[in-house]
Amino acid sequence: MRSSAMRGGAGAGFAPRFVCMLTALSAVVSWVIVSGAGGQAARPIEPTDRDLPTKSIGPVSFVLDTGLFYSPDGSPLVEIYVQVPYDQLPFVREGGGFVSRVEVVAVFENVSGNQVGGDSWSREIWVEDYDQTIDPRTTYRAQATFSLPPGEYSLRLSCGAVDSEVKGEAYRILEVPRRTDEGLILSDIRLGSCASSADTAVVLPIFPLPAVVTRGPFIPNAARSFGTETETACAKAEVYSFDDGSTDTTAATFTVSDEGGNIVWEDRESVEMTGRATEVDFYVPIDSLAWGTYGLELALSSGDDRVTALRYFEVDESRVGADMDLEGLIDLMSIVATEEELQTLAELPESERKAYLEEIWRSRDPDTSTPRNEFRILFFERLKEAKLKFEEGGVEGWRTDRGRVYIRNGPPDRIETSPGVTGSISPYATIEIWYYDGTNARYVFEDFGGNGKFTLVDVIQG
User: pTM of the full predicted structure?
Assistant: First the structure.
């Protein structure tokens, strides 16, 4: 960890008509995945707690994130981070390569709906060959900083081609708190990659400053998502002392907790305050974490003064198979794989599992001419949603009956609930019926004990 002086004043549908046979959840049901119709204990992560980045809606997919910081004079600063995969941008042949002209528009509104800030920018992105234009792993990243007074705001951001109606939009609610002049203040945590000096992050300026391109070891990750390509994530925060410009040494504790609230990584350092604002750098060992969502907490204490910042991030699905235990891996893949594939997976040595997993996903890719596997993307998007929506009594949402039906079929067109059937063990028993109009199917779940644990009891076709 380093400390240094601070800077001055930033359920989609599946691929068209593609279906794939799946392993049965019970002996009487066979499945297809189809387009949706519509360590130390800490507090577990609740769905409503997850301040994760915002995904866009519309034809251009991108990710939006925000962070709260302060200028040296104490004015609040809101940073925005945007990340757009190249395959979401329109490229045209020009000169000896391809170019995409991207426009980003950010608008801040107060609670009354009045615009109080914002700006728009356009950039030209040049690549040499066509394969780069369709690579979802290559991303355009932008960062901008705005000065806003204390208050509640909504941020609307659009991204797409210049002079085109084809754009994506993202909406995010944020609060700028009123600053105190006493004690320590901690900013939000920036998360990113420790990149080589050859990597580039485009920084969008506050109007009317010119565009700034920074080259260095830190590139913000707006998605806050890391995979096998990242061994260590970089994190940055800023601690402020506006009362006396303290130069004391402050104790810093960094912890990473899993979804159950268990601390899986911890580090302690000391930070020497260097005036009114000090930058704190630290590093998170991503390669030691399994796939899932984590909470990263930074706590600073000096005497009786203690401040904390919490930021959630994800270790993406590329780590599934890299470090998941065999039993859990088989349980997860049973949602999508055949019995034969599961048997092969169970018999393979650990060193060969990841390659075989890639083959399972590749065999279900509806369009092998592109690097993006729509089947795999949709599977894990629904799996994340199921984890949030259908956790039952400590059982992860994707392991429950409702969660697995949701992953295979997407959100139902409608849900009906009614009292449980005669003979249920609780007067509070409930039946829940999911209707899928496109396939003319109904899935019947019953909560026999009235405790929120639903069991799939029937599937009705036609």
Answer: 0.75
